[in-house]
């Protein structure tokens, strides 16, 4: 039998030894026509795959970044605004430090411009009375308010936790909430100033002779007005004064006016009294985060006050009957004379004050209902620091 050769092609394309297998090929259905036009006759049958649009993703990313940037700017702006408000709320009244003063000066080296009104300590209740005080201070354009920390009669004007104050039963007409009241005043840009009568004390020397200034007979010394004094040479006395000031400072009072710091000459000599001596010791022990001022009393003649307030008018008798022309002339003359009298009174009042008061002094001026007029005169005259006290 003749073998069939491998290479014979008699049944070529009619039978295969393997089963046909086919796979879809994309380019198999694509062709170029005779005209050279590319086409895909099955394109309409193919599923359409939506491609991601990159430009939308980029837009979302850009918007997101822009939003973050705007939010950051807003946070920074609110932060700076809040800081400005905080600094203004908690700022001191106008300070005019020396231009050549080195950086980092403590508050005790700063010159304060205090336009201060006095109120009773009991007003510091952080409630209705304090709200009324704040309204009056704001309406009167005051930047500070003065209260009694230690009065000349020896009583203490705030609720103290000191054992010595309790021992002497020195509390009277107290500020019931000094700490929160001082904070509330600070929020309104009003500084709380404490008045402290140091050695002048009409309570403790009569109870405890060991701290009293004694006369030659060994009894508490009394001046011509019957006032008694604490002994400046006593360490117990110094600690008593220091503890009161330190406690009030912890409650938010940063400026203290020291009064009654000098012992009368009739009591003798050799005492370590005086503002400079006492303030130096207090700064050393308490620190320079407080300001100590010496009160300088100024007495204004009542007639000058009346002249400024317009209470003194032309008292010329006008019993005679005059015609309208003469009346108008008299009124004009009276107005001119009144204006001249007021100007003269203002000048005389200003002559009692030195515009360059110094760094550690403040004027104490007793006024009545004429406080607004006196305040205007002092401000227009350039008086730096003053406390308008209630007369009487």
- Strand coverage percent: 5-15%
Q: Could you name the ranges where pLDDT drops below 50 across 5 or more consecutive residues?
A: 88-104, 312-322
Shape: elongated
Kindly name the structural category.
alpha/beta
| Assembly level | single chain
Following the backbone from N to C, one meets helices and strands in this order, namely: EEHEHEEHEHEHHEHEHHEHE
For the largest sheet, list the strands in their spatial order: 3-4-7-8-9-10-11
What is this structure's SSE topology?
Layout: E1 30-32, E2 38-40, H1 54-89, E3 115-118, H2 128-139, E4 144-150, E5 156-158, H3 163-167, E6 171-175, H4 178-187, E7 191-197, H5 204-207, H6 235-250, E8 255-259, H7 275-286, E9 291-298, H8 302-309, H9 324-350, E10 361-367, H10 371-380, E11 386-390
Parallel strand pairs: 3-4, 3-11, 4-7, 5-6, 7-8, 8-9, 9-10, 10-11
Antiparallel strand pairs: 1-2
What does the model show?
By secondary structure, this protein is an alpha/beta fold. Helix content is 36%, strand content 15%. It contains ten helices and eleven strands. The strands form three sheets. Strands 3-4-7-8-9-10-11 form a seven-stranded parallel barrel, surrounded by four helices. Strands 1-2 form a two-stranded antiparallel sheet. Strands 5-6 form a two-stranded parallel ribbon. The longest helix is centred in the N-terminal third of the chain and has 36 residues.
